[in-house]
């Protein structure tokens, strides 16, 4: 397979790459603005409930949204989701008030709803199986880049009038909308063919009551992946709720915590290959134990410094998280060679990740004024510590077969999306 053969199908999707980058930039900026803007007119605990509630909307409607897009078209709903988000940003033009905050947050929830599953299904429906891994990697990289710019801009944007904030988000999403207009039209349904080894983790089509039926079939590895995804999501959601509040209260202050929000995903992009090699070669139990211990210690300490230590601890915490996740994924792949329950397993694991993004802001909102921002972030790491204890009991070495291959682990985002 030549470089030209690989580049051609990726370049063909250039409009969708522009769309992903700009949508993540604009929507990510909108999400980070919600907790500080809302806290100016509402109690922080109420904002926690509202942000958690918007995540819950996505949690319960994710699968129905997928079925709707399968029937009516992915590209069409990527355009619709852009229009919804432009309306969410436009609501901010009416000034800072409780109705405006509620309106923009609820509209954005439906804007996010079709983005993730729509992009994943669109890309897989347009990609041949031999290129699917590379295409999804480009998607992950551009999503991360959009979030990096959104978090880097947060400190500056918070000092602007709300109407200017609205215009910035509207322009970014509007240009994304124009880009997706030029994207290739839908070809086939993403459910027609399995094109990626982790296809079911990108295209989820099992309702909740079917998804929970697989719980009794879960092995220790899938159970640990569920617990890790849940606890890690609570931790990251807590950080994403608290840091913008700190930045707003400091009237800008150090930009490091803002940029630090992007370090979580950057660590995975930067070191994913190296960590994957470690997961393949070394003792599984030791890697899971060590990875979760690193995650727990660095995660507990991250909130007590807004200096360069915030970046370093964020980087280290995510390295520990990814090391444990990659190792558990490799273990799961060895235990489940038939992969007959991939769709249901992906559904239940993703459900608990989304549940973590619902619980994180809610708990952080209640704790923020009671124990302070630093300890709120530390408490957000307690589920990770519990996961480490559970792993120490549950994880056992599993023998490898010489020359075996492991299904690539799908990327788990450390940001809203």
Automatic annotation (TrEMBL):
Record membrane topology: Multi-pass membrane protein
Keywords: Cell membrane, Membrane, Transmembrane, Transmembrane helix, Transport
Keyword Repeat set for record: no
GO cellular component terms, semicolon-separated: plasma membrane
Matching Gene3D superfamilies: MFS general substrate transporter like domains
Transmembrane segments: 12-32, 44-65, 77-94, 100-124, 136-158, 164-184, 225-247, 259-279, 286-304, 310-332, 344-368, 374-395
Official protein name in the record: Major facilitator superfamily (MFS) profile domain-containing protein
